[in-house]
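can u do me a favor
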């Protein structure tokens, strides 16, 4: 019997509320990746924000899901981690973050529709997820480049090497010579 070599669909998704300081770290990583890198067609870079259950169709199409998030695991603000979904402690799955309840509910409902992608969480320990601010705390902001590298390294282990985006070509500005 002939089996087709299917290229796995990889979804890299940042979740969080950018209005609540460090809560938006995952979305900030996605924004930076989208600005700076080109990804192959089988890799989707998604700003999941606080969409919750509406992300089910995005998650369902993934064979591999890489979630970038700010998650309280009891470390120091700015600590980085990589944890497979099934190893996330239950106490963390019920934290007091606005988006996390929706994301956790979404992930817990995925078995009901039959598709649970291989999932890994790449994250940062937040300092502040309660203050209204578009700015990340200094401890978390300093780690955004490191989180991006972690995502790129994760993709590399999956055989994906995104390239840097080409800079926009400069258009010549023509000026009329003085009379």
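np, heres the sequence
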């Amino acid at each position: 019997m002939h089996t087709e070599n299917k290229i796995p669909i990889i979804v890299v998704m940042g979740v969080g509320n950018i209005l609540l300081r460090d809560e938006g770290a995952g979305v900030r990583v996605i924004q930076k990746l989208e600005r700076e890198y080109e990804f192959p067609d089988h890799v989707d870079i998604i700003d999941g924000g606080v969409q919750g259950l509406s992300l089910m169709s995005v998650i369902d199409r993934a064979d591999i899901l890489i979630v970038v998030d700010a998650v309280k695991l009891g470390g120091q603000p700015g600590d980085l981690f990589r944890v497979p979904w099934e190893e996330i402690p239950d106490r963390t799955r019920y934290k007091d973050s606005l988006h996390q309840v929706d994301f956790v509910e979404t992930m817990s409902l995925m078995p009901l529709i039959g598709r649970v992608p291989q999932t890994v969480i790449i994250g940062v320990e937040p300092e502040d997820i309660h203050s209204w601010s578009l700015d990340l705390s200094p401890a978390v902001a300093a780690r955004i480049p490191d989180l991006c590298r972690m995502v790129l390294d994760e993709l590399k282990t999956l055989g994906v090497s995104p390239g840097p985006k080409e800079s926009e070509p400069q258009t010549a500005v023509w000026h009329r010579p003085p009379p």
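The CA atoms of residues 29 and 147 lie 7 Å apart. hope that helps!!
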